[in-house]
Each structure stands twice: as structure tokens, then as C-alpha cells.
């Protein structure tokens, strides 16, 4: 495959589990600073696509290029180090640590030219913690034990822990599940802010929320792309209404 200007180029990606193709010859391109939403009925293959990109599941065929580096040959750890962050549905924060400490422990080790100068490094980490805390709306809560945060704030904290690593591609699986209407709106603002300097892929079922965030929507069905494009176009697509939106 040739090189592209896309941050992520997925081409002919396939994975089969005992002969069942959960992802079937999928081709999809994500731009720099694009926020793409994956939608589709249960079992369409959305989670499996993210699992393939982050290396949790190995593909049977096809290619995944991130900044023109082939990911399908790398380990999960190497994929994280190359700049891909993934958030699963359930928050995995350290409940007994403060918000500050959760962010601090997520700062990549061995980063930065001041590695040997402790005070400079400390300042570097502190600056990054404060920047991220502002992004995730938790500046006022930095000293609070994380167990005391609301469900929505815990989700934001986990996004913040990923942002500490400054990923160039961030993937989120149903980030607003269980959130209040207000928290959903705040999360939409948060995602619109953070995709200004990275690409983001979100799996989401809540179409009102999708409308607020999506630059483009990819509709998956039986491991294949049923439709792709701006929300208005996808929403008006007969096939999409039939297999997904009509329900
Ligand atoms: N490791 C696995 N082994 C066998 N089958 C799997 C595996 N992972 C996923 N599948 C199957 O692949 C299909 C796609 O699953 P996937 O979880 O990707 O769908 P989804 O679109 O994310 O659905 P949902 O909206 O329900 O999360 C399902 O039929 C699922 O049972």
C-alpha cells in the first residue's frame, strides 16, 4: 500500500473468529484533527475495529497505517507508544488517588530532554496536569479523592489520563453512557475541544450526541461499511434507516 496524508489509513481490514467475519474487508481513512463517529447495530463490528487498531485483537488480513507506520505488526504497548490512546467503556481510574495523582501517574515515563533534572521535570509534569485538568473541567477537583467524583467526572478523568500521553489518535467507546443530559453536553464540548489538535474516533449510539460531535459518520453493518459521510447525508440514507435508524 502506498503512503497517504491520512493520520489513519485502514485498508481491506478483516478479522474472522472461527470463520465468522466480524470485520470484513473494511477500508476507512481518518484525517488529521478529524472527529469520526462509528455507529451501527449491536454486533456490527464497531468495538472489534477499535480492538484491531489498538492491537488488542490481531487482524486476519489487511492493513492499518498510523502516520504511514503499519500497526498490525506492532504490540499493544508499541501502538500506545506510537501515539494511539484507547478508552474502554468502564473507567479504570485509581479511586483512592486524587485527581491530580491520577493525571500525574499517567505522564509518560522517560519523556522530555530534562529527564535527569528532577525540578524541571516536576514543573513539566505539573504544567501538563494543569493543562489537562482544564481541558477535562476538573481544575476545581484536583485535590479530591477520585472515588468521590460523579460518574461523568470519572469518565472525563480517564480521558484526561489518556490526554497526559498526548496521543495523536484517541479512541473512545460510548463515552457518554450513563451520563446526565448536562454531562453529555459538556462532554460534546470537551470532545470538540480536544479534536482541535488530534484525531478522535468515537463509538456512539446516542444520535443526538453524534450530531453534536461528528465531522463524519461511518455506519457499520455485519462488519462492512453501509454508509459514510456527514451526519445529514448518512441520516437520510435509505439503507441506514432500514438497518439502524428505523429501529
Ligand atoms: N474475540 C471474539 N471471538 C469471537 N467472536 C467475537 C470476538 N469479538 C467479537 N466477536 C463477534 O464479532 C461481532 C462484532 O462484535 P462487536 O463487539 O465488534 O460489535 P459492536 O458493533 O461493537 O456491537 P455493540 O454495539 O453491541 O458493542 C459479534 O458478533 C461478536 O460476537
UniProtKB/TrEMBL annotation:
Pfam families, A to Z: ABC_tran, BCA_ABC_TP_C
GO molecular function, one term: ATP binding
CDD domains: ABC_Mj1267_LivG_branched
Residue span(s) of domain ABC transporter: 8-247
Keywords from the UniProt entry: ATP-binding, Cell membrane, Membrane, Nucleotide-binding, Transport
Transport recorded as keyword: yes
Any coiled-coil regions, as ranges: none
Entries under InterPro entries matching the protein: AAA+_ATPase, ABC_AA/LPS_Transport, ABC_transporter-like_ATP-bd, ABC_transptr_urea_ATP-bd_UrtD, BCA_ABC_TP_C, P-loop_NTPase
PANTHER family (alphabetical): CONSERVED COMPONENT OF ABC TRANSPORTER FOR NATURAL AMINO ACIDS-RELATED, HIGH-AFFINITY BRANCHED-CHAIN AMINO ACID TRANSPORT ATP-BINDING PROTEIN
Name of the protein this chain belongs to: Urea ABC transporter ATP-binding protein UrtD
Organism listed in the record: Methylophilus aquaticus
Amino acid at each position: 500500500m502506498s503512503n497517504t496524508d491520512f493520520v489513519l489509513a485502514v485498508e481491506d481490514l478483516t478479522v474472522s473468529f472461527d470463520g465468522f467475519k466480524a470485520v470484513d474487508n473494511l477500508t476507512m481513512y481518518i484525517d488529521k484533527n478529524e472527529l469520526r463517529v462509528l455507529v451501527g447495530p449491536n454486533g456490527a463490528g464497531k468495538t472489534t475495529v477499535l480492538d484491531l487498531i489498538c492491537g488488542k485483537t490481531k487482524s486476519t488480513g489487511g492493513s492499518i497505517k498510523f502516520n504511514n507506520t503499519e500497526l498490525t505488526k506492532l504490540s499493544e504497548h508499541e501502538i500506545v507508544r506510537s501515539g494511539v490512546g484507547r478508552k474502554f467503556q468502564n473507567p479504570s481510574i485509581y479511586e483512592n488517588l486524587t485527581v491530580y495523582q491520577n493525571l500525574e501517574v499517567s505522564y509518560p515515563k522517560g519523556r522530555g530532554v530534562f529527564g535527569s533534572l528532577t525540578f524541571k521535570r516536576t514543573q513539566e509534569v505539573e504544567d501538563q496536569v494543569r493543562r489537562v485538568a482544564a481541558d477535562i473541567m476538573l481544575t476545581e477537583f484536583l485535590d479530591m479523592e477520585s472515588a468521590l467524583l460523579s460518574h461523568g467526572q470519572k469518565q472525563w478523568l480517564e480521558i484526561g489520563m489518556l490526554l497526559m500521553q498526548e496521543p495523536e489518535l484517541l479512541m473512545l467507546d460510548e463515552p457518554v453512557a450513563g451520563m446526565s443530559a448536562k454531562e453529555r453536553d459538556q462532554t460534546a464540548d470537551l470532545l470538540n475541544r480536544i479534536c482541535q489538535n488530534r484525531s478522535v474516533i468515537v463509538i456512539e449510539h446516542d444520535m443526538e450526541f453524534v450530531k453534536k460531535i461528528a465531522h463524519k459518520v461511518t455506519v457499520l453493518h455485519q462488519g462492512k461499511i453501509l454508509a459514510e459521510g456527514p451526519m445529514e447525508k448518512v441520516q437520510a440514507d435509505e439503507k441506514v434507516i432500514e438497518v439502524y435508524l428505523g429501529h
